[in-house]
Amino acid sequence: MLDNLKTETRNQRSTDLDQLSTLSVLELMQEEDAKVSLAIREKLPEIERVTKCVIASFKQGGRLIYTGAGTSGRMGILDAVECVPTFGTDPDMVQGVIAGGDEAIRMAVEGAEDSVEQGMKDLEKLNLSDKDIVLGVAASGRTPYVIGGLQYAARVGAATASLACNKDAEISNYAEYPIEIITGPEVLTGSTRLKAGTAQKMVLNMISTAAMIGIGKTYSNLMVDVQPTNEKLIVRAKSMIREMTGCDYETASKYYELSRHQVKVAVIMLLAELDYEEAQRKLQEADGFIRRALQQK
Question: Which CATH number fits domain 231-295: 1.10.8.1080, 1.20.1420.30, 1.40.20.10, 3.40.50.20?
Fold first, then answer.
Protein backbone atom coordinates (compact mmCIF):
# COMPACT_ATOMS: atom_id res chain seq x y z
CA MET A 1 0.00 0.00 0.00
CA LEU A 2 1.20 3.52 -0.81
CA ASP A 3 0.05 4.71 2.60
CA ASN A 4 2.85 2.71 4.18
CA LEU A 5 5.58 4.38 2.14
CA LYS A 6 7.40 7.30 3.76
CA THR A 7 7.73 9.00 0.39
CA GLU A 8 3.93 9.08 0.13
CA THR A 9 3.02 10.26 3.65
CA ARG A 10 2.30 13.88 4.53
CA ASN A 11 5.12 16.03 5.83
CA GLN A 12 3.90 17.59 9.06
CA ARG A 13 6.22 20.56 8.55
CA SER A 14 4.43 21.60 5.37
CA THR A 15 0.73 21.12 6.14
CA ASP A 16 0.17 24.88 5.74
CA LEU A 17 2.21 25.00 2.55
CA ASP A 18 -0.42 26.90 0.57
CA GLN A 19 -0.47 29.68 3.20
CA LEU A 20 3.26 30.29 3.39
CA SER A 21 5.06 33.18 1.74
CA THR A 22 7.22 32.36 -1.25
CA LEU A 23 10.37 32.82 0.82
CA SER A 24 9.03 30.54 3.56
CA VAL A 25 8.28 27.84 0.99
CA LEU A 26 11.81 28.10 -0.38
CA GLU A 27 13.34 28.01 3.11
CA LEU A 28 11.32 24.93 4.00
CA MET A 29 12.32 23.15 0.80
CA GLN A 30 15.98 23.99 1.37
CA GLU A 31 15.82 22.68 4.94
CA GLU A 32 14.27 19.42 3.76
CA ASP A 33 16.76 19.07 0.91
CA ALA A 34 19.61 19.44 3.39
CA LYS A 35 18.51 16.14 4.95
CA VAL A 36 19.20 14.25 1.72
CA SER A 37 22.99 14.40 1.96
CA LEU A 38 22.90 13.10 5.53
CA ALA A 39 20.63 10.23 4.50
CA ILE A 40 23.06 9.30 1.73
CA ARG A 41 26.04 9.41 4.08
CA GLU A 42 24.46 6.65 6.18
CA LYS A 43 24.40 4.37 3.14
CA LEU A 44 27.95 4.89 1.82
CA PRO A 45 28.96 1.23 2.44
CA GLU A 46 26.08 0.04 0.27
CA ILE A 47 26.92 2.62 -2.42
CA GLU A 48 30.56 1.52 -2.31
CA ARG A 49 29.60 -2.11 -2.92
CA VAL A 50 27.57 -1.18 -5.97
CA THR A 51 30.34 1.06 -7.30
CA LYS A 52 32.95 -1.69 -6.97
CA CYS A 53 30.63 -4.03 -8.85
CA VAL A 54 30.28 -1.44 -11.63
CA ILE A 55 34.07 -1.09 -11.84
CA ALA A 56 34.43 -4.87 -12.10
CA SER A 57 31.82 -4.92 -14.85
CA PHE A 58 33.57 -2.18 -16.83
CA LYS A 59 36.94 -3.92 -16.53
CA GLN A 60 35.55 -7.03 -18.19
CA GLY A 61 33.87 -5.08 -20.97
CA GLY A 62 30.45 -4.99 -19.37
CA ARG A 63 27.89 -2.20 -19.17
CA LEU A 64 25.97 -0.29 -16.52
CA ILE A 65 22.25 -0.26 -17.28
CA TYR A 66 19.84 1.94 -15.32
CA THR A 67 16.16 1.06 -15.45
CA GLY A 68 13.28 3.05 -13.96
CA ALA A 69 9.98 4.81 -14.53
CA GLY A 70 9.04 8.49 -14.40
CA THR A 71 11.48 10.69 -12.51
CA SER A 72 13.56 7.66 -11.54
CA GLY A 73 13.92 6.61 -15.17
CA ARG A 74 14.82 10.14 -16.24
CA MET A 75 17.53 10.34 -13.59
CA GLY A 76 19.10 7.18 -14.98
CA ILE A 77 19.00 8.52 -18.52
CA LEU A 78 20.47 11.86 -17.43
CA ASP A 79 23.41 10.20 -15.71
CA ALA A 80 23.98 7.85 -18.64
CA VAL A 81 24.04 10.48 -21.37
CA GLU A 82 26.37 12.73 -19.38
CA CYS A 83 29.00 10.00 -19.12
CA VAL A 84 29.71 10.23 -22.85
CA PRO A 85 31.01 13.84 -23.01
CA THR A 86 32.46 13.81 -19.49
CA PHE A 87 34.45 10.60 -19.70
CA GLY A 88 34.67 9.91 -23.43
CA THR A 89 32.79 6.62 -23.09
CA ASP A 90 30.96 4.71 -25.77
CA PRO A 91 27.21 5.48 -25.54
CA ASP A 92 26.55 1.77 -24.95
CA MET A 93 28.74 1.61 -21.84
CA VAL A 94 26.25 3.38 -19.56
CA GLN A 95 22.60 3.32 -20.63
CA GLY A 96 19.28 4.41 -19.20
CA VAL A 97 16.05 2.54 -19.90
CA ILE A 98 12.72 4.16 -19.02
CA ALA A 99 9.22 2.72 -18.86
CA GLY A 100 7.29 3.99 -21.87
CA GLY A 101 10.39 4.49 -24.02
CA ASP A 102 11.75 7.75 -25.38
CA GLU A 103 8.32 9.40 -25.27
CA ALA A 104 8.37 9.09 -21.49
CA ILE A 105 11.49 11.24 -21.23
CA ARG A 106 9.47 14.35 -22.09
CA MET A 107 5.94 13.34 -21.19
CA ALA A 108 4.37 10.96 -18.67
CA VAL A 109 3.21 7.68 -20.21
CA GLU A 110 0.35 6.50 -18.02
CA GLY A 111 0.51 2.92 -16.84
CA ALA A 112 3.93 2.22 -18.36
CA GLU A 113 5.47 1.49 -14.98
CA ASP A 114 2.89 -1.14 -14.03
CA SER A 115 4.13 -3.93 -16.32
CA VAL A 116 6.64 -6.48 -15.04
CA GLU A 117 6.65 -8.08 -18.49
CA GLN A 118 7.56 -4.81 -20.25
CA GLY A 119 10.43 -4.29 -17.83
CA MET A 120 11.75 -7.67 -18.91
CA LYS A 121 11.19 -7.08 -22.63
CA ASP A 122 12.95 -3.71 -22.65
CA LEU A 123 16.09 -5.18 -21.11
CA GLU A 124 15.93 -8.24 -23.33
CA LYS A 125 16.43 -5.89 -26.30
CA LEU A 126 19.85 -4.93 -24.90
CA ASN A 127 21.26 -8.47 -25.12
CA LEU A 128 22.36 -8.48 -21.49
CA SER A 129 25.17 -10.78 -20.41
CA ASP A 130 26.84 -11.83 -17.18
CA LYS A 131 29.37 -9.03 -17.72
CA ASP A 132 26.72 -6.33 -17.23
CA ILE A 133 25.18 -4.78 -14.13
CA VAL A 134 21.59 -3.55 -13.99
CA LEU A 135 20.65 -0.89 -11.45
CA GLY A 136 16.91 -0.55 -10.88
CA VAL A 137 15.83 2.88 -9.64
CA ALA A 138 12.46 3.49 -7.96
CA ALA A 139 11.66 6.08 -5.31
CA SER A 140 8.77 4.00 -3.99
CA GLY A 141 10.82 0.83 -4.20
CA ARG A 142 7.88 -1.13 -5.59
CA THR A 143 7.66 -0.29 -9.31
CA PRO A 144 6.67 -3.44 -11.27
CA TYR A 145 8.58 -2.33 -14.39
CA VAL A 146 11.80 -2.15 -12.38
CA ILE A 147 11.14 -5.48 -10.70
CA GLY A 148 10.70 -7.08 -14.11
CA GLY A 149 13.99 -5.64 -15.30
CA LEU A 150 15.85 -6.93 -12.25
CA GLN A 151 14.26 -10.36 -12.63
CA TYR A 152 15.36 -10.59 -16.24
CA ALA A 153 18.87 -9.39 -15.40
CA ALA A 154 19.24 -12.06 -12.74
CA ARG A 155 17.95 -14.69 -15.15
CA VAL A 156 20.74 -14.01 -17.66
CA GLY A 157 23.42 -13.77 -14.98
CA ALA A 158 23.94 -10.00 -14.93
CA ALA A 159 24.73 -8.39 -11.59
CA THR A 160 21.78 -6.56 -10.03
CA ALA A 161 21.55 -3.48 -7.82
CA SER A 162 18.67 -1.28 -6.73
CA LEU A 163 18.12 2.24 -5.46
CA ALA A 164 14.97 3.07 -3.49
CA CYS A 165 13.92 5.85 -1.14
CA ASN A 166 11.92 3.74 1.31
CA LYS A 167 12.98 1.22 3.93
CA ASP A 168 12.43 -2.49 3.21
CA ALA A 169 11.72 -1.68 -0.43
CA GLU A 170 10.28 -4.46 -2.54
CA ILE A 171 12.89 -4.00 -5.27
CA SER A 172 15.59 -4.70 -2.67
CA ASN A 173 14.40 -8.32 -2.69
CA TYR A 174 15.34 -8.61 -6.36
CA ALA A 175 18.83 -7.08 -6.16
CA GLU A 176 22.15 -8.48 -5.03
CA TYR A 177 23.24 -5.00 -4.02
CA PRO A 178 20.32 -2.96 -2.68
CA ILE A 179 20.58 0.69 -1.65
CA GLU A 180 17.82 2.35 0.38
CA ILE A 181 18.13 6.10 0.95
CA ILE A 182 15.41 7.12 3.41
CA THR A 183 14.45 10.64 2.34
CA GLY A 184 11.14 10.80 4.21
CA PRO A 185 7.94 12.68 3.35
CA GLU A 186 8.13 15.27 0.60
CA VAL A 187 7.27 18.94 1.16
CA LEU A 188 4.61 18.44 -1.50
CA THR A 189 3.02 15.11 -0.60
CA GLY A 190 4.01 12.31 -2.94
CA SER A 191 6.06 14.52 -5.28
CA THR A 192 9.12 12.28 -5.39
CA ARG A 193 10.79 14.47 -8.00
CA LEU A 194 11.83 16.54 -4.96
CA LYS A 195 13.92 14.95 -2.16
CA ALA A 196 13.76 11.44 -3.59
CA GLY A 197 14.77 12.67 -7.04
CA THR A 198 17.61 14.69 -5.53
CA ALA A 199 18.85 11.63 -3.65
CA GLN A 200 18.75 9.55 -6.82
CA LYS A 201 20.68 12.15 -8.80
CA MET A 202 23.35 12.39 -6.11
CA VAL A 203 23.78 8.63 -5.71
CA LEU A 204 23.92 7.94 -9.44
CA ASN A 205 26.47 10.76 -9.81
CA MET A 206 28.56 9.15 -7.10
CA ILE A 207 28.41 5.66 -8.57
CA SER A 208 29.21 6.59 -12.17
CA THR A 209 31.91 9.13 -11.28
CA ALA A 210 33.70 6.88 -8.79
CA ALA A 211 33.47 3.99 -11.25
CA MET A 212 35.03 6.06 -14.03
CA ILE A 213 37.83 7.08 -11.68
CA GLY A 214 38.30 3.39 -10.95
CA ILE A 215 38.98 2.59 -14.61
CA GLY A 216 41.42 5.43 -15.26
CA LYS A 217 39.14 8.09 -16.70
CA THR A 218 40.71 10.83 -14.55
CA TYR A 219 44.15 12.11 -13.63
CA SER A 220 44.25 13.94 -10.30
CA ASN A 221 40.84 15.67 -10.36
CA LEU A 222 40.89 16.38 -14.08
CA MET A 223 38.53 14.99 -16.77
CA VAL A 224 41.32 13.75 -19.00
CA ASP A 225 39.02 11.68 -21.21
CA VAL A 226 36.65 14.56 -21.90
CA GLN A 227 35.46 14.70 -25.52
CA PRO A 228 36.58 18.03 -27.05
CA THR A 229 33.39 18.53 -29.06
CA ASN A 230 33.23 22.34 -28.88
CA GLU A 231 35.56 25.32 -28.53
CA LYS A 232 35.22 25.49 -24.75
CA LEU A 233 36.18 21.84 -24.34
CA ILE A 234 39.09 22.16 -26.77
CA VAL A 235 40.49 25.02 -24.68
CA ARG A 236 39.90 22.96 -21.54
CA ALA A 237 41.76 20.00 -23.05
CA LYS A 238 44.77 22.14 -23.92
CA SER A 239 44.71 23.76 -20.49
CA MET A 240 44.77 20.33 -18.84
CA ILE A 241 47.81 19.33 -20.89
CA ARG A 242 49.55 22.55 -19.85
CA GLU A 243 48.64 22.13 -16.19
CA MET A 244 49.69 18.48 -15.97
CA THR A 245 53.00 18.88 -17.77
CA GLY A 246 54.04 22.42 -16.87
CA CYS A 247 54.47 23.39 -20.52
CA ASP A 248 53.27 26.62 -22.09
CA TYR A 249 49.98 26.92 -23.93
CA GLU A 250 51.63 26.87 -27.36
CA THR A 251 53.35 23.57 -26.60
CA ALA A 252 50.13 22.16 -25.17
CA SER A 253 48.33 23.10 -28.38
CA LYS A 254 51.04 21.43 -30.46
CA TYR A 255 50.84 18.16 -28.54
CA TYR A 256 47.06 18.29 -28.52
CA GLU A 257 47.28 17.99 -32.29
CA LEU A 258 50.13 15.46 -32.28
CA SER A 259 48.16 13.24 -29.88
CA ARG A 260 45.16 13.34 -32.20
CA HIS A 261 43.17 15.28 -29.63
CA GLN A 262 43.76 12.80 -26.79
CA VAL A 263 44.75 14.54 -23.56
CA LYS A 264 46.10 11.41 -21.90
CA VAL A 265 48.32 10.53 -24.84
CA ALA A 266 49.58 14.12 -25.09
CA VAL A 267 50.59 14.13 -21.43
CA ILE A 268 52.51 10.86 -21.78
CA MET A 269 54.19 12.08 -24.96
CA LEU A 270 55.42 15.20 -23.18
CA LEU A 271 56.39 13.76 -19.80
CA ALA A 272 57.91 10.52 -21.08
CA GLU A 273 59.31 12.10 -24.27
CA LEU A 274 57.66 9.53 -26.54
CA ASP A 275 56.12 9.64 -29.98
CA TYR A 276 52.41 9.07 -30.51
CA GLU A 277 52.56 5.32 -31.17
CA GLU A 278 54.76 4.58 -28.16
CA ALA A 279 52.67 6.77 -25.83
CA GLN A 280 49.50 5.11 -27.06
CA ARG A 281 51.00 1.67 -26.45
CA LYS A 282 52.08 2.55 -22.92
CA LEU A 283 48.62 3.89 -22.12
CA GLN A 284 46.96 0.72 -23.38
CA GLU A 285 49.32 -1.46 -21.36
CA ALA A 286 48.45 0.63 -18.30
CA ASP A 287 44.71 0.07 -18.86
CA GLY A 288 44.18 3.77 -19.47
CA PHE A 289 45.81 5.03 -16.25
CA ILE A 290 48.23 7.92 -16.87
CA ARG A 291 50.16 7.47 -13.62
CA ARG A 292 50.64 3.77 -14.28
CA ALA A 293 51.81 4.45 -17.84
CA LEU A 294 54.39 6.97 -16.63
CA GLN A 295 55.75 4.50 -14.06
CA GLN A 296 56.44 1.88 -16.71
CA LYS A 297 60.03 1.43 -17.77
Answer: 1.10.8.1080
Predicted local distance difference test score (pLDDT) of residue 297: 63
Which of these ranges, 11-15, 20-24, 225-229, has the smallest mean pLDDT?
225-229
**Residues tagged active-site:** 82, 113
Say if strands 64-68 and 159-164 run parallel, antiparallel, or are unpaired: unpaired
Q: What is the mean pLDDT of residues 152-161?
A: 98
How much is the pLDDT for 3? Answer: 60
CATH of span 2-214: 3.40.50.10490
